[in-house]
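Z., the sequence and structure:
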Amino acid sequence: MHGNNVPSQVVMDHSRLHRLNSAAEFAAAESGWFTDPATGVTEIKTPSVSTGRGFTVHLQK
């Protein structure tokens, strides 16, 4: 996600994803999110879900 505002939390299907402190932590994690302060890009990794199941992700201010 590109944007000027860093989310305060990211929620997938009513469960909060963990905020990670660095790109390295994000790369090593199975799920979570990280906002690159240099670019303002927020990257999100969700836990594995079946491709036959829908889900929602909300970024909250």
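The longest helix spans residues 23-28. The mean pLDDT is 91.

Let me know what you think.
H.
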